[in-house]
Each structure stands twice: as structure tokens, then as C-alpha cells.
Description:
The complex is a heterodimer. Chain A is of the alpha+beta class. Chain A has three helices and eight strands. In chain A, strands 1, 2, 3, 4, 5, 6, 7 and 8 form an eight-stranded antiparallel sheet that branches. In chain A, a hairpin with a 3-residue loop joins strand 3 (43-51) and strand 4 (55-61). The relative contact order of chain A is 0.30. Chain B has four domains: 3-213; 239-356, Beta-Lactamase; 374-530, Four Helix Bundle (Hemerythrin (Met), subunit A) (Up-down Bundle); 532-752, Heat Shock Protein 90. Chain B is rod-shaped and about 220 Å long. The interface between A and B is medium-sized, with 32 and 37 residues.
Amino acid sequence: MLYEQELKTFVEGTTNFFEVAAQQPASIGSPYLMEGAPAVHEYTGVIKISGKREGVVYFTAPKAMLTVLLMKMQENDFSHETMRDLVGEVANTISGNARRDFGRDFVISVPSVLSGEKPEIPQRPGQRSFIIPINWRSHSAKLVVSLT
Amino acid sequence: MSLAGTERRRQLFTASIGTALMLVMGLALIWGFRLATHMRANIIALQTASTLQTYPEEISHQLNALRDRLEVRAYSGQALADLQATVKRFDQELRVLSGSVDADSPQLGHALLLWHQYAPVLEPVVSFGGQPYVDSDNAGSSLSREGREHYAEVKRAQLFASENARPLQTQLANLATSLERTSSAGATRLRSLLMGGVFAALVLAVVAAYFQLSRARHERAAREAQEQTRDILKTVREGFFLLDAHYRIGSVWSEALTRMFGRNDFAGLTFEELLEDLVPQSTLATAMKYIKLLWGDRAHENLMKSINPLGQLEITTDNGHGGKETRYLQFDFHRVMGPEGIKHVLCSVGDITSSVLLARELHDSQENANAQLDMMVGLMHVDPLQLVSFLDTAETGLKLVNTILKEPARTDAEFRKKLAGLFREMHTIKGEASALNLKSVAMRVHTLEDMVGDCKKKPELSGNDFLPMVLKLDELLAHLRNVREMAARVTALKDTSAGSAATAAADFAASAHAPLAPAPITAMAPAPAAPAAPPAPAAALTAPAAAAPPARSANQERPARRVEELSPALQSMAERLAQDHAKRFRLTLNGLAEVPAPYTATIKDCLIQMLRNAAVHGIEPPEVRRAQAKKDTGNVQVDFRRTAEGYELLFEDDGAGIAPEALKAAAVRRQLITEEDAELMDTRAAMALIFRPGFSTQEDITMDAGRGVGMDVVARSVYALGGKIGVSTHPGKFTRFKIVLPATDSLSTAVA
């Protein structure tokens, strides 16, 4: 059973990224549960976790949101690769936060980036996930925590 | 025997031997120096004596030569001068010899005696200074008168010499021989002494070498011991250090401390400084008191162990990744005694985090096992069909909760809008769980309700406030799955031989192995419409169906079970409620077999809620009833019947009734109405308050009352079916609820 602090660590990792990178904090929407793999946006940064918990945590964002984020970061390059890098960066921040808070109890993989609307995200069948909407400006992304 | 004592004695022994040998060597050297000095004087004396022994014969020859010169009237000046020089030299050297040689020497004494006789005889000869000759032309040179006297003195001296020169020479030779013997003896002594000195030096060297080797061996052993100690301190998993009388840590500690405390500057650190950033101030103060007590001789060590406040200390340290982690340390203290009492306190620290966590897991697991056992025993008494019905209802309800959560929200108002819906869904599930005595489910839903209640009190809501809720929801869903699996097992066990129940067991087994939700959660029923404003007080008693907000659509999805099947559960719920609230009442259920299938879920929810209300608010405690001339045991009567217009449910208790003023006061306290509103409110309007969301006359929230949700749910369910609800009461006598529902053939029109 996931603990509140564990969930908060992933959420803070995500919202902190927006605050630092875009100087504009993100807020979280109403969290809910979902059985099976939720729909993802165009770009998804995934970290795999093992040890005390097993599963994946991923941040999935639409292209429009990432474009505005890049603009806020004074970036002029809006290529596919830059979008991927940006989502990877968010996943990396989540991973760093988790390492900081969980220490050796969690073994956290190097983030990987998936793009497209139906990427292969390794998830156990029937696994319930926590979906936390990440709202930034008028856009909304999702943080999905799927751990046992 | 202590290592330090042995070493001290070894050093003392080495110093004594060294001093003794140095003393011997010093004495030998001083003695040798004196011997050498003496020998040198002897050798000089020997040389002098050897030279002097030739002088008497030389003096005799020179006297003879002088006499011959005087006889032949030859020049005698040179011969006299030679004699004078020899006599003078002999006299001087003899004086020197007599000064350097032991005065007791007989040879020297005899020689000096002879010389003292000889010297006066020679004196006139050597002191002659006149002209021995006189020259005349006729006689040539002849002896002058002085010459003649001089010649006579020479002759007398010559005569004395002829008699005494040899004895004098002999004495001087003897003296030389004696001196030679003395020198030889001195040389022998000096040689012996030197040999002794060399031997002593050798002995000293051997002793020094022995002790050096011994010391080297000892130092090597000490070094090895130090290395071993260092290795032990480096490898041991426990932290060790010594505390002095000022509670300061000594210079030696085990490396495990670095891992435990994330620092390595322990030397000189006080125990207080070690813990001050890691534990609360109160714990630190207790720990310091304990350490001070340890330094008192009076407290017995075993007693001290038993009151050790640091037996399991929770600390927060850096986790090495910039974060914090909680660890559990066990401190143990032992006094180190010296000759003058307590010298140090040895502190050992063990990291018992794994053990503590394991113990907790074991405890949780044990509790879980006990809870499962209790649940299993509880499930044995629950009708399988009712349980399946409840689990389906609960899961549907929780899906609805999840659907409410899933509704996008960004503002406080949007988040707040969810709370009322969440309350209603959860309250219904809790009510049914309580009715079936499924305490584990009811408790979890109650906790979830508490979370929603906490959110309600917050001035500004955000998604963060809903995180605990969604976690609890996940846990609750998992728990329901467990209950379903366990119920399947219980049913299978219970009905292995009963053919009639085999179907139910198969039902459960199928349900347990099927996915938790018949459809994915994404396919949950849509969220209910935003809670509408509460019904107007005046209209609440007879609100028409059209005025009611839509209840959850899940009502229509529930399996249609007969309400009368719930009778045993309601009876057992009544018993539990009576026990929990120290009340006594009898529940009478009539006509529940008449409840048509479309109304079963609503009637069930209403009965559960009204029963809870009657038990908590209606029926008085026995002593109160007695004081009011009532029977100790109260009555709760339920009557369901068909009417010309449809159906009617009467729910009546002979309890305290409802005081409108108490309702108004409670509504003011809960800020549902202002005091001015309360003043203007008539009795009907006051009675209608009980159906308002969030209204309750009870201040404390319990499992059965206090949230102000129950009657709101009842009213909404009734309105949703196009029915109406009314309440009549007489304070101190009774409370009666009347629910009127339309005929079922008109239901589809009403809810459409």
C-alpha cells in the first residue's frame, strides 16, 4: 500500500520542476484512481522503480503544454527531440526527489522517454494507478504512479 | 594484571639495571683514571730514579777529574763547572723524586739520608769560586792557598764518594726497582679494571639489547593490539565510544557511528551535542538525566538498564541523497570502573532499524491476521446473498466516489463541490457495512469520511488535500477485494455439504476471481449532478419528487434483493447500536416483504440511517427513561405497507423526540443558519433542518452520528424516487418518520 509521503514526493518532484524551470508553479488537480493503463499524451517520461516498491511512475504531457513551457524557458528550439528532452528532464527531477526522500529503499532507473499516443509502458495487468492531474497555466498533464 | 602496570614495572627494572651498570662503569672509570694518574707519576719517578742512579758514579768521576786537574795544575774550571751542574741536577731531581714518590719508601729514605750527608761534603767543592793557582816565574804555576784548601775539599769529597757513592747508587737502583714493581702492579690493576669495565660495558650492552628487544617485542605487540582494536572498531556493526565525567566522547570510537549519525567529529563532542539535532528536546532532557544518573555510584547498573530511555531511539538523519531518513538506535551503557570509582561510561549504539521495522511488520501482520480471523468469524454470520449485495453496492459506491474525484477541478469551489457528494456515498456504504457488522469496512469508510470532513474545514482546498483520500480509497477497494475473497472461502467452507448454498458459494467464488470491478474504473457511473441547494424548510416535509435533486444513479444498478432478507442484519445492527450507545430497545419490523424490487436499495438505506438516528438521538438511556416513567427498554417500530397511491414506510421510536429549539441551536452552532434566521423559524421549518446536509445535533463525530449526512441521504433517495418524507414528533414521547413512495409503475416517469 502506497504511503501519502511517497505520493507527495513524486508530486513535489513534478511541481517543483515547473517552478524552477518556468518560474511559474504548477498545481495539482483532483487525484483519482484508474485500473489499467490510462491514456497518455504525446510525450511521456518514465522511471521504473524496484526495491521497497515495484512499478513505474511517469509524467505524460501534451505537446502544446511542452511548447509553452519551452517558450517560458526562453528556448527557441521546439523540435521533437527538445520535447523529448524536456519530458526526460521532468522525469529526472521526479527521480531525484525520490532518491532524496527514499534513499536506499528504492532502486530508481534512469528515466526513459516515450513519444506517441500508445507507448509501451510496462505495467502489471489489473494494477490500479494513481492519476494526479498537473495543471499549469491552461494546460494539464498527468502524473501516473503505478506502484505495488 | 593490567598491561599498563606490567609496562611500568618493566620500565622501572630497565632504569634500575641501567643506573647500576652506569654506576659500575663510572666507578671503574674513576678508579682507572686514578690508577693511570698514579702510574704516570710512578713512571716519571721511575725514569727519574733510573737517571739519578747514574749520578753518584758520575759525581765520583767528575771529582776524580777535578782532583787530577788540580794535581797537574791544569785548568779545572770546566771540571768544576761539570761537577756543579751534575750536583745541582742530582739535587733538584732527587727533590722532585722525593715529592712524587711515596714518602714511606725506605729506599728513598736511605738515598735522601746519604745525600744529605754527601751534599754538605760536596758543598765546599762546588761552591769554590776562587783562583786555585798562583803563577810565578820561577816556580811556575802552583796551588794557591785557596787552591790547596779546595784540593783538600775535593780529596775529602772523593774519599766520601768512594765510600758512599755506591750505597747511594744502590739505594736509587732499589728505588727504581721498587717503582718499577709498583708501576707493574698498577698496570696489572688497570688492565683488570679495564677488563672489568669492558665486561660491565658488555653486560650493559647485552642487558640494553635484551630490554631493547623486549621493548620492541612489546611495542610490536602493542602495535598489533592497536591494529586489531582499530580493525574491530572499523568492522563492528555497533557504535562504541567512551563518555567522560563531563559527558564528552573520547578520542576512540567505532566507525559504525559515522554511518549511524552521518558525521565523524565525535572526539570531544558532548552527548548532548550528539543528540540535540536528532531527537526532540524532551527526549534529550530525559537522556541527559539518565546519563547523569549513570555517573552516580548509588544506582545499580541492572536497575539503570531497566530504566534506559534510549533503548529504542528514533532519529532522523541524512539519507546520503540530500533527503532524510528515520532510523532506530538502541543505546546501551556500561560503567567502566577504575581504582577511584567510575572512570568512563562505555556507550554502545546498535542500529535496530531493521528489527524495529520487522517487529512492526510482524505486529501489523499479526493484527492483519487477527482482523482477518475476526472478519472471517463475522462473515460466518452474514447471509451470503446480503454480503454479495453489499460488496456490489459498496464497489459501485466507491466507483462513484472515484468518479466524483475524477471530475476536473482547479478552483476551491470546484474542489469543495465534490465534498458533499463524497460524504453521501461514503455514508451509505458505512451504514450498510455497519448493518452487516463489517467493522473493518465501516472503520475504513469512517476514516475516509473524516478526511472529507477535515477538507471541509480548510479555508482553501487544492488537489493536495485530496491525495490522502485517494490513497484511502485505494486501500478500501483493496480491502473490499479481500473481504470478497474471504467471504468466498467462508461460504465454501460453510456450505460444502449444503446443495442449496452451493450456488451462493459458486457466486462468491466467481466474484472473487473475477476482476474487482465488472468494468474498468474508467467506465464508472458519471458523477452526480452538483448538490442542489437543500430543500426549503417549509417544503422539506412534503417535497414533491420534482423538487428533489437526482440521487446516485447507482441505486438503479444495484442487484434487487428483498429487504426482508436484511431483517436479521438490521436486528443485529440494532443490538450493536444498543450495546455501543448503552441503550435498550426492541426493533420490530413489519411488512418488509412488501417492498417492491425498485425500492429495496432505498428502503434499506433509509432503514439503516433511521435506525442509527433512533439509537443515537431517539431512545434514551435506561436511567433517563426510568426517570420519565418509561420502560427501560424502548421500542423502534418499522411498518411498510402498500397504499392506494403507492407505498408507505413508517419508522417510529418511543424516545426523546425532537425539540425544535435544540435543532435551531445546533444549526446556528454549525453556521447553517444565523441567529436571526433561527428566531424567525417556525416549528415546521426547524424540523426540516434535520434533512439539511451537514446538520447534526451531535457535536462529536462517531461511527454512527455527527456528520449530518444520514438524513440528507435519506431525503435525497426518497426524492429521487419521486417520494416524500415527513417527520412528526412529541418531545419526550416519540419521533415518527413517514416516507411515501409512488407506485412502481409510475417510477420510470418520476426519475426520468
